[in-house]
Amino acid sequence: MMNSKKHIKLKIFILLLQFALTSVASAQKTQYQYLSGADKDHTVSWDFKINTGMNSGKWSKINVPSNWELQGFGTYNYFSDTNNPNEFGWYKHNFETPTSLNKEIFVVFEGAMTDTEVMINGKLAGPIHQGGFYRFKYNITDKLNPTGTNLLEVKVYKKSTNASVNKAEREGDYWQFGGIYRPVYLEIVPKNYIDRIAVNAKADGSLTTDVFTVAEFASQQIEVELKTLDDKKIGSVQQAIDKQGSTRIITSFKNIKTWNPEAPYLYNLTVSLIDKKKIVHQVNQKIGFRTVELRPVDGIYVNDVKIKFKGVNRHSFWPESGRALSKQISIDDVKLIKQMNMNAVRMSHYPPDQHFLDVCDSLGLFVIDELTGWQKSYDTQVGKKLVKELVIRDVNHPSIVVWANGNEGGWNRDLDDDFDLYDPQKRMIIHPWEKFRGTDTRHYPDYNYMVNSMLYGKDVFFPTEFMHGNYDGGMAAGLQDFWDMMIKHPYGAGGFLWSFADEGVVRTDKNGIIDVAGDSAPDGIVGPHHEKEGSFNAVKKIWSPIVVNNKYIPTNFDGRLFIENRYHYTNLNQCTFKWELKKFVKEKQEYTAKVNATDKMVFSSSVEPGESMALKLNLPADWKTNDVLSFTAVDPSGNEVYTWSWPLKFPEEIIKSAITLNEFKAEPKAITKLGKLNVLVDDIDIQFDQTTGLLDHIVSKGKKISLSKGPILAHARSEMKLQNFKNYLKDGNLIVESAYKGEEWLNVKWTFTSGKPVKLDYEYASNRWDQQVGYNFMGITFNYPEQMVTAAEWMGNGPERVYKNRLEGAEFGVWKKYFNNGITGEKFEYPEFKGYHGPFYWVKLSNSETDFTIYAENQNVFLQLFKPSHAKATRESVKAAFPAGDLGFMNAIAPIGTKFQKPEFLGPTSQQDIQLNYAPFKGTLWFDFR
Question: What percent of the chain lies above the pLDDT cut of 70?
Answer without folding.
Answer: 97
